[in-house]
Amino acid sequence: MTASSQPSASKDINLDDFETRYRSGPWLNRFVFTLSVLLALAHIYINTIATLPELWVSAFHFAGFGMLCALLIPASPQWRESKIALFCDGILVFALIGMVLYIVFFEDALYARGVTFNNADWIVSSVAVLMSLELIRRTSGWFIPFLIIVALTYVVLWGSWLGGMFNFPGLSLETLLYRSFFSTDGMFGSISRISWSFVFMFILFGAFLVKSGAGDFIIDLSRSLASKMIGGPGFVAVLGSGLMGSVSGSSVANTVSTGVITIPLMRKAGFPARFAAGVEAAASTGGQLMPPVMGAGAFIMASYTQVPYVTIISVAAIPALLYFLSVGFFVRVEAKRSKVIATESDDAVNMSQVLKDGWHHIVPLGVLVALLVQGFTPTYAAGISILAVVAASFLSPRHRMGPIAILDAMAQGAKNMSTTAVLLVGIGLVVNVISTTGVGNTFSLLITNWANGSLLLTIILVAIASLILGMGLPVTAAYIVLGTLSAPALFNLIAESQLLEMMSSGNLPEAASAVFMLVDPSTIAALAQGMPMEQAQALLAQVPNDFKSMLMDQALGAQSVAMILVTAHMIIFWLSQDSNVTPPVCLTAFAAAAIAKTPPMLTGMTAWKLAKGLYIVPLLMAYTPLIGGDPDTLLRLSFFAIFGMYALVGAMEGYLEDKLSLLPRIIALVASIMMLWPDLAIWIQLIGLGLFLALFVMGNKSYKKTT
């Protein structure tokens, strides 16, 4: 089968997953297309040369994409052909327009009255919140609206009924609606600003790339690189999904666009159907971990941590590569076990021909990376990169983007953004409640108390919470909520563990040691020489909380503290991805199962097994300087982590080049621990590597004898 005969990877990722109104008539399609193009143009203008109040822009952003959702997705699937339902949604469209106009023309009047609501303020703000709930219900189900209602009623109603640390005296409904609608703390706060700036521009950039044929280029390039390897089609899925996900930022879209090619390839080569679907789901999930886009997570992380976006994506690269390698190890093991050697000759793709036909697709990505490295803002870099996509398309006669293709790309980008936009705006209501009530700090203290100061137990609790939230929330929303709630606790534990290590080893700087003069002056000499870990823990526990931040800055340095904060958020972001592949709700695995025609729940279990890197790599982040370490440290960590994860996969599967009996399987597990366990001496890690290589060589010889 030639490349040209494969299904197209550049198939538009649209709203077909929902019961849309695409069949309601050509006039509606034309109107939606025109509205989508206008929204794209407006957002490009807003993100480049406009100087408008952020509240106005956020309201326009919500209204515009809310109109798209209202017109495309009916309130119930049974009403997709109903003219009455369409008429009612037309009223919703006019209500959204009226909401924006009200903010623009009547915001000053509210402040002139001393922020006292009149009847119109009550009506407009209440209807805006209700419209947000309804639009999110249509696109994401009931869970998020329920979560928002629980959060809002906690502020004005039942928070005062609670005792203990979660008691909240309450705010008036007027104050809550003001903070939710008129201020830049609620619906139209920082999350909305990230949505209409960074997220939209990169989703639009991805839409232009896909429209230019970059998806086909990525798949063909992956096939040319991996097709001759053992288990080549599986590696095509891993490479293709990683590369596609690096620009699409959506795991489900990644699965749908690449899975239609890779899953049939894997099945044809001899992989079991369920394993093929699991590989695609696990690899597509990793697409959100791969820079530069990373879904919306990188932009939100940059906003939360105040660390530059380019720094976020640079430190995220090595962990993402480790994840894809871990999936690749499962592919190789299954390929050997299922006797999948290589693809058939008619599936081969010539790399030189692929690069000759599609090298121009690399240009926009190069422009994007270059601009980010030079310090330009992500929105500016994305805007210039979109122009680079159009310009680069003229370097190939097959992919030139004329006016029609450009308009199609803008319309598709806006449609792709619609569900994300209404979701992020609505999640702003929850974030506002968390910040207003201080429940985030309370939750962090609760996790710390439950974990009893254990970093490992804290990570396990965060993982459980992320899985529960992920059953009803998309991964980006789950990260936002969980990051707001638990990142402070995780940050404190990681920072304190590093601080305790310095205290016990006698490497604490003098400026930091001076802080302990306020606690126990007699310990200064012991700090200089080092002390037992138990004594260090007892001493640190005596430091008042008000002084701990200053102590960490002086002991670890501002740069290290910033990287620890990024590490805490990166761990939470990684753990939030597990809902993509973990039953009972795992949309990415379900999408792959639909393509492979395998049982969805069993496919989810397979994908969950293959995505073990989602748990191993965050542990490495927490206990080692995998985020922000110096080059020598990163090289050593990555080297042993690669072989350690391979050994772990062999121990889990009972297969490493050939079937492992019980004793070699135990040896493989021990070898993986010796290479992955933090802070072990290098000679111990080398022994672990030697054990693994011995098993690998013996297994390879045994395998050759049986083939």
Topology:
Blueprint: H1 26-48, H2 54-72, H3 83-112, H4 119-140, H5 143-156, H6 173-182, H7 190-211, H8 214-226, H9 232-248, H10 251-269, H11 273-286, H12 297-305, H13 309-337, H14 351-358, H15 362-373, H16 378-393, H17 403-437, H18 439-451, H19 455-470, H20 475-505, H21 510-513, H22 524-529, H23 533-541, H24 545-556, H25 558-576, H26 587-596, H27 600-610, H28 613-623, H29 631-653, E1 655-656, E2 658-659, H30 662-676, H31 682-706
Antiparallel strand pairs: 1-2
Helix pairs in contact: 1-2, 1-7, 1-17, 2-3, 2-7, 2-17, 3-4, 4-5, 4-6, 4-17, 5-17, 7-16, 7-17, 8-9, 8-14, 9-10, 9-11, 9-13, 10-11, 10-26, 11-13, 11-26, 11-27, 12-25, 13-28, 13-29, 15-16, 17-20, 18-19, 18-20, 19-20, 19-25, 20-23, 20-25, 24-25, 25-28, 26-27, 29-30, 29-31, 30-31
Question: Care to describe what's here?
Answer:
- It comes from Marinomonas arctica.
- Keywords: Cell inner membrane, Cell membrane, Membrane, Transmembrane, Transmembrane helix, Transport.
- InterPro entries: DctM, TRAP_DctM-Dct_fused.
- Strand 1 and strand 2 form a beta hairpin.
- The two termini are 27 Å apart.
- A two-stranded antiparallel sheet has the order 1-2.
- Helix content is 73%, strand content 1%.
- With 707 residues, it is mostly helical.
- The longest helix is centred in the middle third of the chain and has 35 residues.
- It contains 31 helices and two strands.
- It has four domains: 167 residues, no CATH class; 233 residues, no CATH class; 143 residues, no CATH class; 67 residues, no CATH class.
